[in-house]
Structure formats: C-alpha cells, structure tokens
Design a protein that fits this description.
- The protein is mostly helical and about 575 residues long.
- About 65% of the residues lie in helices and about 5% in strands.
- The chain is built from 14 helices and five strands.
- It has helices spanning about 40-45, 60, 65-100, 100-105, 155-240, 250-280, 280-330, 335-375, 380-390, 400-405, 415-440, 445-450, 455-485, 490-530; strands at about 130, 145-150, 545, 555-560, 570-575.
- It has a three-stranded mixed beta sheet, with no helix packed on it. Strands 1-5 form a two-stranded antiparallel sheet.
C-alpha cells in the first residue's frame, strides 16, 4: 500500500547541534493482495436456471421490493420443484399401497408367489380346489385344508428372476445411500466445519488487530494529551515573563523562543487533528470487536447444526445397514415377531422420518448454495454493498479503511488524507521537540537561568518540559508509525480474505453444494428403497378364499408345492366353484 506517505518537514531546523535519538520512519508496504477467482463449482451453481428471474445478489441488497422479490423467487423455484416431486412421489407410494398386490404387484409392498390361475379374469372359469372326501358325507366340509396348485416352470423362473432383481435394486440403492452418506460427511459436513473454524480464526485475527489498533490510537491520544499537559507549567512561566519563555536577546535565546512558539502552536494543531480523526476511531474499532463477538456466539449454534448433520448421517447409515440385514433374513425366509417388530416399530418409522428431513434439507441447502454462489461470484463487490447498508454504524474514518481492505486495497480509504495529515503534523511536533531538546537538553538549570533570565524554579519547569517533550514526542512518533503499519493493507486484507474468500466461499459454499448434492441423492435412492421395500419381506404365499352361495361357511384352502399328479383320486373329491 502506498498511502500515508512521509511528510518531509522543511523548516528552520536545517541546522541542528545533534540528534538525541533517531526518528522512526514509516516504510510504505509493498503488499499486493492475491486476486480472487470464483471456483468453477460456484460459477456453475450461479449460472443454474432461475426460470426468468435474476441471479444478481446485489439486487437483494440494494434493489427495491420488486427486485428483491424477483431474486428470492428465482432461488426458491428450484426448491419448490424438488419439494413437489417428493410430495407426488410419496402420494404415488401411498396410492400403490392402497391398490394392493393383485393390481400392482410388488409396488404395493409385498412379493406374492403367482398361482396357476393368476391373471385369470373369466368368470366362467372356476377355481378347482381338491378337497379330501369326508368320512361322513353328512358332516360336510368344516375346515380349510391344503390343496395342490402348481404353476409352470417358466412362470416360476420369471418370478424368481423378478425377486432377485427387486432385491438387487433395493441393495444397490442402499449401497448408494451409504456411499452418499459417507460423502455427505467426508466432503460436505467436513467443509462446513472447516468453514466454521476458518471464520473463528478470522474473528480472532480481527479482534487481535483491532485491539492493537485501539492501543496505538490511544497511545497517540495519550501522548498528545501528555504534551499538552506539560505545556501548562511553561505557559505559566511565559505569563510571569511578559509572554516569553526565554526573554533575553542572545541568538540562542531567540532560537529557543522561536522553537517553543512553533512547538506549542503545532501541538494545538495536533490536538485538533487527533480529536477530529481519532476520537471516534477507537469507538468504531470497539464496535467491530463487539460485532465479531456476536458472530462468534452465533457460531455455537452452527456447531449444534454441525452435530445434527453428523447424527443424521450416522443414524441413516445405521438404518440402511439394518435394512440390508432384513433383506438377508427375507432371502432366507426368516420372519418372526422380532423381525416384524424391528421393521414396523423401529426401522420404518425412523427411516421415513429422516427421509422427510432429507427432502427438507435438500431444498434448504439448494437455496443456501444458490444464494451463496451468487454472493461468491463477486464477494468483494457484494460485501461492499452489504457494508454500505450499515455505514451509519461507523462514526469516524474507519469505515473508509474497511472498504479499502474489502476492495483488495484498490479503493483508497476516505480517511487516508486525514491520517496523512495527522502523521505529518505529529512529525512536525516531534521535530520541534527535537530542536528544543538540542538547544536546551544538556544545558544545566543554572545555564537556562543565565540564558533566558529565569528563576531557578522557572528554569526547572522549562528543563523538565524539554526532557519530557523529547521522550513523549518519540513515543508519539512510534505510535503514529505503528498505527500506519497496522492500518496497512497487509494487516487487515488477509483477515478479510480468510473470512470471506476462504471460509465463506471456498469452504462454506462448496460444502453447501456437496451437502445438497449428497442429500438429494440420499433422498432419491431412499425413495427407491421404499418403492422396492418388498425385498425386505419373505415371499408371501397366496391365500384362496372359498365361499358358497348358501348358508355354508367360508372355506380357506392354502396351496402347497405338491405336484397335482401325486393326488390319489380314490381318496379325494373335486369341488368346482
């Protein structure tokens, strides 16, 4: 940064007797900020369709009500489309369940083994059920008994292939969900956590730099006040000696009078500058620290959100693993009260609950990633627009320096000239104090009495002021140089880039996009798992209900896998309904 240039003081003090201490000079910074380039992922997200609406983030800040509404509409349309797809899909699953296995097969939730009459729709064709002959014909048929009802080999093979395909799709979908859950945590959640950590680092750096700036500012104010305070006794000496600090007519006495008058006059000018430029500087910096402390407190809520995301990913993966175990049991034909309780009381309720959360999070993360990408395409410009809304919160010249850092040190701060003038004026005061010290610094009190015609008490006050003014003006010089160094671009701009470029854009927005993508994949393949949930259950054997038109009770015969060729015609009778 090449501002706050040194003031070359060309006064009468070209001829000095000696320097008691060399002056500390400010060296302008050669730091050049690294330009920001939006990552390809952010640019791609920024350019996603907005369905005729704007993607300019600045309209959300500076635009009117209509422009703001237009931008918000553009980023929520995609989320509404996703949410609508989810709702329609859920309704379709419910409708398929209500239609039943006979109409939609496994899409209703169960696999049913086909029978020889499956698909028969002719009312004239009855279902032939083979029943044992009763020992007493008058007893009639009073209970359902197993019958033979075989299907052809081709149908059985086709059904078996369908079962394998359904279970394979279910398993593959589960594997995709598990992998996406891992990516969700490993890339999305970790990036989100890194973003939080980078923001905390930026907050610490801001607070450290701000406190250092406050200390230096207060040192300048204190040094100026000390000089002014020490002028009080010498001003009294002036009053007691007809308005002159050194009343004799020698050449050295005249030099002392001239230097002292210029010193007091420039101290008054320095006071006006300090009160005008730096009085509110510390106030603005303290407000900045308070703001960062509030942000730091808000990050605690972000930490809670981080742990919620971890919990969701862990629980979801655990449920998927439990479902895969259920598929294994179904493949083996295992079905009992324990497996049913696990499926209906624990797994399915939790799975559907987290699936609904996944769809909701997918829509929220889409909105956040779109808005974040729109901001991070040009974060410096958008940050300046945001800060412009709160310009009234800053009472002094510090706001100009904030814009200077945010702009990549390309927009010169509005308070630059004031700081340059303040530094130059402090330099003038310091040099006059040096001149006075060179004239009287090593002159004993008795010598000052003889040189200026003062009493011992008055000469002692002048001697004290000379020595003190030298020390305090060097302190003032160091404080001014330190303030200029801490206000340099290389101090605050890297903090800003850590805060916004790295934490918010590179880590935060990229993490949000990863979270959205993985959440959407998890939601889609979880829905596929629900569609193919029949893979979780053993194959259901068909039930045939037998009913007569008279007062006989309904008879139910369960088919078994015996071949109909093995029936003994002598022991059985044929009943046709």
């Amino acid at each position: 940064m090449e501002f706050l240039t040194n003031h070359n003081h060309t006064t009468h003090s070209q001829h000095r007797y000696r320097h008691l201490e060399p002056l500390l000079d400010y060296t302008p910074s050669t730091y050049i900020p690294e330009p920001y380039t939006a990552p390809n992922s952010i640019s791609a997200t920024h350019n996603q369709p907005r369905y005729g609406h704007t993607n300019d983030f600045e309209t959300l800040i500076d635009g009117g009500e209509d422009a703001t509404r237009d931008y918000i509409t553009g980023i929520i349309i995609g989320a509404l489309i996703i949410l609508s797809v989810a709702v329609v899909w859920f309704l379709a699953i419910v409708i398929l369940k209500c239609m039943g296995e006979k109409k939609v097969g496994f899409l209703a939730g169960r696999l049913i083994r086909p029978t020889a009459t499956t698909g028969s729709s002719s009312k004239g064709e009855g279902v032939e059920v083979v029943m044992p002959s009763p020992s007493n014909p008058e007893d009639g048929i009073d209970e359902g008994v197993p019958v033979n009802h075989a299907i052809d080999t081709e149908t059985e093979q086709k059904f078996t292939r369908s079962v394998h395909l359904i279970r394979a799709i279910f398993i593959l979908s589960a594997i995709v969900v598990i992998i996406s859950g891992g990516v969700f945590y490993g890339k999305g959640v970790v990036s989100f956590k890194n973003s939080i950590d980078e923001v905390r680092l930026g907050i610490d750096l801001v607070q450290t730099a701000a406190r250092k700036t406050i200390d230096l500012t207060e040192n300048v104010i204190q040094a100026e006040g000390d000089i002014e305070e020490e002028l009080v006794p010498t001003a009294q000496v002036e009053q007691e000696n007809n308005g002159e600090i050194c009343g004799l007519n020698s050449e050295v006495s005249a030099q002392v009078r001239t230097v002292y008058v210029e010193l007091t006059k420039n101290v008054d000018l320095l006071k006006e500058m300090v009160e005008g430029s730096l009085a509110s500087f510390s106030h603005d910096l303290k407000n900045l620290i308070t703001l960062t402390e509030k942000v730091d407190s808000g990050l605690d809520q972000a930490d809670i959100f981080f742990y919620i995301l971890i919990t969701i990913s862990v629980v979801l993966i655990g449920l998927i693993v439990a479902m895969l175990v259920g598929v294994f049991f179904a493949w083996k034909g295992v079905s009992n009260c324990v497996t049913k309780a696990m499926q209906y009381a624990i797994i399915w309720p939790l799975f559907i609950f987290f699936l609904v959360l996944s769809w909701l999070f997918a829509t929220l993360f889409l909105i956040a990633s779109l808005a974040g990408s729109d901001f991070c395409v040009n974060p410096d410009k958008n940050t300046q627009a945001i800060l412009g809304q709160d310009e009234d919160e800053f009472q002094g010249i510090f706001f100009g320096f904030v814009i200077f850092y945010v702009s990549g040190c390309t927009i010169q701060p509005a308070g630059e000239e004031e700081i340059i003038a303040l530094a130059s004026q402090a330099r003038v005061v310091l040099e006059y104090a040096h001149d006075l010290t060179e004239l009287l610094g090593e002159v004993p009190i008795a010598g000052i009495v003889a040189l200026c015609g003062l009493t011992i008490q008055q000469a002692t006050a002048v001697k004290k002021f000379v020595n003190f003014s030298h020390d305090v003006t060097h302190l003032l010089n160091r404080a001014i140089v330190g303030l200029r160094e801490v206000l340099a671009c290389e101090t605050f701009n890297p903090i800003y880039t850590t805060f916004v470029h790295k934490a918010l854009c590179i880590e935060g927005v990229s993490g949000l996009k990863s979270i959205f993508t993985t959440t959407l994949i998890i939601s889609i393949f979880s829905m596929i798992m629900i569609m193919f949930r029949a893979a979780l259950y053993p194959i259901k054997e068909p039930d045939v209900k037998l009913a007569s038109s008279d007062e006989n009770a309904m008879e139910v015969a369960k088919y078994n896998e015996d071949s109909p060729g093995e029936k003994d015609a002598g022991d059985e009778q044929v009943v046709v309904y």
